[in-house]
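From the thread on structure requests for the teaching lab: each student submitted one protein with a one-line request. Submission from student K.M.:

"Model Nuclease HARBI1 from Rhynchospora breviuscula, tokens only."
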Amino acid sequence: MDALQQYRSIVFAALTAYVAYLVIFIQIQKRDNQILELRSKAKIERERVRDELMKHLRDDQESRNIIRMGTAAFERFCFILRETGRLTDNKYSCVEEQVAKFWHVLSHNVRNRLIKFYFRRSLATVSNHFRKVLRAVISLEDRFLVQPKDDGPIPNEILLRQGKFSPYFEKCVGAIDGTHIRVKVPRDEVKRYRSRKQFPTHNNLVACTFDLKLTYVLAGWEGSAHDSKVLQDALSRDDRLLIPRGRYYLADAGYALTPSFITPYRGVRYHLKEYSIHPPENEKELFNLRHSSLRNAVERSIGVLQKKFPIIASGSEPYYDEETVSDVFLACCIIHNYLMGVDPDEELIAQVDEEIMHSEIESNTLSISSSRNENYRLGEEIRDDIALKMWHDYNLNAS
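Reply posted by the TA:
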């Protein structure tokens, strides 16, 4: 009897434990199912939010507000990036989403954390997509930054302005200038990178044609470097700035006068605003007026570039390291050229032109340089020849 009672007790205990196990198991399963359901709902919600965000890019005006370009231009650029093989759709995100996030950062100078919030992605995913797209865009450098060739045509902006720019500047292929963008460097490097802006910058050299497309970019020089030093490097490196045979660029007075870089007369009025009040009175003033009218293409190019991509125009300390800032500047230049070819923002260009015309005149005259050598003499001959021919025709037409 005792053995039977003991057996029953054991069976009862086993059944009780089994029932308790089943109850716990069912509760765990129920909880897991609830978690899975919540996760599924959260995933569906995240995907819905992303779909809603991407829908905005299918509306042309919304697309311009968000990423500063129209729908067709955005879709074509995504196609071009796919062609590089560096960007592909994956299980979790398409190329369009990756590019949209990258472009939004450039167009609004926002941190990756904000993109994480908008797109419901992890910070690691957002950062990874940014760098992947950045590398893919930079791979397009040779396709969109094309330097003038020896047998290249006369720019239409010169050829079609007969009597003003043609035939005098028919050998001119474009203009060059430097532009500073803020960088973040270690404290012991600040002095070397500090420019006249009083904070660390890169001094970047750009060359452009008169249709506002950039043809050459050299990014990364410390802000304290003089423009002429940056140009010297651009002319001597492997991927150097090319000067077509017998042609030249226009440059401001910060560069040396040579047969390849024609600068304005020093000690003479230069800025366009000055001549709107008092017309030119001699051949040097007329040359400076026409030189300024043509050379401001590079100022316009830089102005449009900075307005379209505030990430390279902000005075606040950047979020990225120095090397990334340099890569971002190059990427912005490549995208700028792409857009100037397929989707130029005429309203933005007009805004930049207006600002340039109303900008303050830094000085009434250009200081006199003491640097003279054989290259300077040859450049002076070219400049004087242009100036005398223009002045002769100017007086002939005025009489």
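TA comment: The beta strands are 172-182, 201-208, 214-222, 248-250, 261-262. Confidence is low (pLDDT under 50) at residues 361-370.
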